Amino acid sequence: MPVDTDVVLAEGPWAHRQISANGARFHVVEAGTGPLVLLLHGFPTFWWTWRHQLPALAEAGCRAVAMDLRGYGGSDKTPRGYDPFSLAGDVAGVIRSLGAAQATVVGHGWGGLLAWTLAATEPELCSGLVAISAPHPLRMRGAIAGSGRQVAAASYMIGFQRPWVPERRLVRDDAAEVGRLLSEWSGGTGWPDEPTAARYRAAMQIDAVAHCALEYHRWAFRSLFRPDGQRFARRMRAPVRCPVLQLHGAADPVVLSRTAGGSGRWVAGPYTSVTIPRAGHFPHEEQPDAVTTELLAHLTG
């Protein structure tokens, strides 16, 4: 489809590839050589969210790879596979398909949850973890159970549980809802500008992306009451032993700063938590220089 080419295949100092992993095909963007740093986006973005960090990581001597998660961008839109076990299996498969034994996994939002999941379930693949706007999954579950403010902040997920209505709303009027979410979830500094919002609106209108993106949220909510959710919680009790950097926007209205705090409880290795001033839910885009500086310091340290 033309929108795939125009939006997903954005030009820049990187190369586009399609690779097979975990029974699906994934679109990845690669820059540089050296130790692998795998970048995982969140909702409602795609690989392009890392456009600021990709060149900086490559220049610092890393092999920086940003992937479109299952259901997004140029990756396969499968009918199933949107639980963290399957999605973390995608990430593990991509690392292996790239020919690497390990990677530092950097994830934002849902990508951060998958980074935490991979570090707990397949620790041999993680040389480091950077979670952006993504508390440890057990910390998030606890906050939702015990914090009225966090429940209110994440109440949008309840609306996502209805069949098909949220999909139509996401893509209606040139995906205006995506632009609204980006703006309302930011730190109020004027991000995103119109070209940035337009690219994300276009990416959400790729066939099946809206449905697949919402399936992540549907699993997260419904699993709270199902055995597979309890099984996931038990698996996530395993301590994370690789070095962890947690970055969080000071003005994040979706995942509160107080929710992000305390994630170090599940980390047995070195743990650093940094708050990014004047940033909301997308600090790597709202304050890219500050996030890149912290990321490079973590990698070299």
Judging from the principal axes of the Cα atoms, what is the shape?
globular
| Strand runs, count | 8
Radius of gyration: 17 Å
Low-confidence stretches: none
Distance linking N and C termini: 43 Å
Percent helix range: 40-55%
Notes on the structure:
The protein has 301 residues and is of the alpha/beta class. It contains 14 helices and 8 strands. It has helices at 2-8, 53-59, 84-97, 110-121, 137-146, 148-153, 156-159, 165-184, 194-204, 209-222, 227-235, 257-260, 283-286, 288-300; strands at residues 15-21, 24-31, 36-40, 63-67, 103-108, 126-132, 244-249, 271-276. The chain has an 8-stranded mixed β-sheet with strand order 1-2-4-3-5-6-7-8, sandwiched between helices. Helix 1 packs across helix 9 and helix 8 packs antiparallel against helix 9. The protein is globular, with a radius of gyration of 17 Å. The N and C termini lie far apart (43 Å). 48% of the residues are buried. The mean pLDDT is 95.
Pick out its properties:
301 residues; eight-stranded mixed β-sheet; 14 helices; 17% strand
Question: Brief overview, please?
Answer:
By secondary structure, the protein is α/β, with parallel strands linked by helices. Helix content is 45%, strand content 17%. A hairpin with a 2-residue loop joins strand 1 and strand 2 (24-31).
